[in-house]
Structure formats: structure tokens, C-alpha cells
């Protein structure tokens, strides 16, 4: 019976071996397609750590990691060293335990691959294995910082949820686009969340906050354009063939401009279209707005409602072409201060 077979039946004998003998056994175990991990599990955590540190050439404690994680890392380090000695193309580990950038883009960097099934995995930082968390959104998978409570790249900063199939026309973004240039946080939120949130300023008392056709970012307070979102809703309503989409987009358009001062003419066009549509499908609030079925052209009011949508979009384009901004700079500052309260 050789040394490996003896250890398999009596793992306690490991403690009697020298460090060099232990390392040699680990090298032999790394050749096994299976069973190596099970044998090493019977070794003490201290023995495994000593061998790993000897292979890396530096002392590391790896606190917070399970023995299994450390064993897997040890076998990987040993396997990589053996590949290098054989002259294969597998690149060596750097001093901090990571691979060269070229190899990292392939299968030797499993963190991104594992995250598809499990958002919690491990990564190497300065030679230490640490827990890493990725966004649960399969379309994003951004790496999250330890202090992040939600993904700032793809999730709403108000409800902190993401959409599986994100429709940009139903989101608002804090940006530096005209007419409200300046530093922005880049956060985004659902349009519906912003319509309900008091700090966004999209309410009937928006004029008291210096807002008119704009909104405050709930995250940082910066004033942003809202008319572009309003235009998107009317464009969708104008071009759709589905009654439920027409109802939903018109309802959003009406809420966006409710209580504005400079855009009452635009609000009046939408309000007329809403009243006309409600005669056919009922109130555009609550469940009916998303459950209405049918084709727009089959509604008696359908063609006329969409004609009004086109008229509203054309009117906005005409206003914007003649006026750079409807909001004075002092009003923007007043909105910023109000949104911080």
C-alpha cells in the first residue's frame, strides 16, 4: 500500500509527515480526476493553509473562507505550476495569485461564469480570496461593492428593482443633457416610481418647487428634463395598434404634465384624447388601463385619439424649436434646495 492509499484509510497520519512530504502528496493528489478533495477534507485546516502559503511563497490567513474553498484553490495552484513545468501555454500565476490578463478572459477566470448560477462567488485581491457579489440581473451582472444595497447600473434608485426586459421609455435618468447641464449622479428610476415619489416634484404642487416640464432626481436632487419622456409616451401611443398600450401611454402622458404652467396647451390636447378614449374603454386608471384588449382601429375613437397624439408631439417640437428653456436658473436652484428637505 503506497503513501496515498495509507492516507486515504488513515488521514491522521498526515500530521506525522514533513512539509515537503505533504507537498509531494498534494502534487500526486492533483493528478486525480476525483477523490482528491475528499482526502484533503480530512486534513486539518492548518496543514492545508501551510501548504498553500508555501506554494504561493507568502503567508495568507484566508479568514472567512471554508476549508473546501481553500482546498480548491490549492489544487488549482498546484495544477497551474505543473502545467508551467510541462511547458504548456497555461500562463503562470502572478505574485498576487492572479493570472495574466490574457488568460483571465478565458475559462481560468470563473467568477463571471459562476455568477450566472450564483451571484456570490470568490475572487483574488492581493493574494487573498474574497467573496464577490454580482448583480442578479442576467442582462447586467455588474460587480457590486460591499456597501451597495442594489445595483446602481440597472436598478431603480427608488424601488431598487430591475426589469427583466427593460423598456427605456419607461425609465428616467439623471444626466447632464440640455437644457439642464451640470454634474449628475447617473442614477435611473422607473417613470411610475418617480410619478409617485414626492421628491421627484412631479406632483400638482410642482410650481411651488420651481418645476415645470422637469423633475428632480430622487437620488441627488439634480433637475432633469421630463418633456423628452412625455414625448416618448405620445409617440408610443401614436404608433401602437394595441388598445392597452394606447391607454397606458396616454395615462402616463396625462400624469407627467398635470399641474404644469407653461405646458397647459399640451396638457389640454392629451386631456381631450383621454376623455375621448374613456368613452370607449372606461377610466384610464387602475387595472383597466393595462387590461384593455383589442385593436386601436376598431375603436370608434381610435383614429382621432392617435391624431391628437400626433398634434401634441408636433406642438411640443414647435415649442422647443422656439425656446431653449422655460425654467430660469434661480428656479433650478430653488428646486435643488427644496428636494433636499
UniProtKB/TrEMBL annotation:
Pfam families named in the record: PHD_Oberon
GO CC list: nucleus
Keyword Kinase: no
InterPro entries according to UniProt: Oberon-like_PHD (IPR032881), VIN3-like (IPR044514)
Chain intervals for the UniProt region annotation (Disordered): 86-115
Intracellular or extracellular location(s): Nucleus
Keyword annotations of the record: Metal-binding, Nucleus, Zinc, Zinc-finger
Domain Oberon-like PHD finger: 135-255
Alphabetized GO MF terms: zinc ion binding
Chain intervals with Basic and acidic residues compositional bias: 96-109
Coiled-coil portions: none
Entry-linked PANTHER family: VIN3-LIKE PROTEIN 2, VIN3-LIKE PROTEIN 2-RELATED
Record protein name field: VIN3-like protein 2
Species, as recorded: Abeliophyllum distichum
Amino acid at each position: 500500500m503506497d503513501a496515498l492509499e495509507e492516507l486515504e484509510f488513515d488521514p491522521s497520519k498526515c500530521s506525522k509527515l514533513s512539509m515537503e512530504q505533504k507537498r509531494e502528496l498534494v502534487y500526486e493528489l492533483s493528478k486525480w480526476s476525483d477523490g482528491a478533495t475528499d482526502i484533503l477534507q480530512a486534513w486539518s485546516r492548518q496543514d492545508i493553509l501551510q501548504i498553500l502559503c508555501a506554494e504561493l511563497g507568502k503567508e495568507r490567513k484566508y479568514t472567512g473562507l471554508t476549508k473546501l474553498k481553500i482546498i480548491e484553490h490549492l489544487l488549482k495552484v498546484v495544477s497551474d505550476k505543473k502545467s508551467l513545468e510541462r511547458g504548456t501555454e497555461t500562463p503562470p500565476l502572478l505574485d498576487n495569485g492572479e493570472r495574466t490578463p490574457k488568460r483571465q478572459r478565458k475559462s481560468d477566470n470563473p467568477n463571471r461564469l459562476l455568477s450566472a448560477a450564483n451571484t456570490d462567488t470568490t475572487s483574488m485581491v492581493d493574494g487573498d480570496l474574497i467573496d464577490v457579489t454580482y448583480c442578479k440581473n442576467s442582462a447586467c451582472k455588474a460587480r457590486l461593492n460591499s456597501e451597495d444595497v442594489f445595483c446602481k447600473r440597472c436598478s431603480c434608485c427608488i424601488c431598487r428593482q430591475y426589469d427583466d426586459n427593460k423598456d427605456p421609455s419607461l425609465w428616467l435618468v439623471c444626466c447632464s443633457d440640455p437644457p439642464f447641464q451640470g454634474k449628475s449622479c447617473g442614477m435611473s428610476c422607473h417613470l411610475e416610481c418617480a410619478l409617485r415619489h414626492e421628491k421627484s416634484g412631479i406632483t400638482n404642487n410642482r410650481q411651488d418647487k420651481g418645476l415645470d416640464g422637469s423633475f428632480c432626481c430622487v437620488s441627488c436632487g439634480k433637475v432633469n428634463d421630463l418633456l423628452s419622456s412625455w414625448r416618448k409616451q405620445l409617440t408610443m401611443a401614436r404608433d401602437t395598434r394595441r388598445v392597452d398600450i394606447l391607454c397606458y401611454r396616454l395615462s402616463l402622458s396625462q400624469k407627467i404634465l398635470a399641474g404644469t404652467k407653461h405646458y397647459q396647451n399640451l396638457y389640454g390636447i392629451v386631456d381631450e384624447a383621454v376623455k375621448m378614449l374613456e368613452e370607449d374603454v372606461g377610466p384610464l386608471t387602475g387595472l383597466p388601463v393595462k387590461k384593455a384588449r383589442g385593436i386601436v382601429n376598431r375603436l370608434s375613437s381610435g383614429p382621432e385619439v392617435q391624431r391628437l397624439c400626433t398634434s401634441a408631439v408636433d406642438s411640443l417640437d414647435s415649442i422647443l424649436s422656439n425656446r431653449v428653456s422655460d425654467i430660469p436658473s434661480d428656479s433650478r436652484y430653488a428646486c435643488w434646495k427644496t428636494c433636499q428637505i
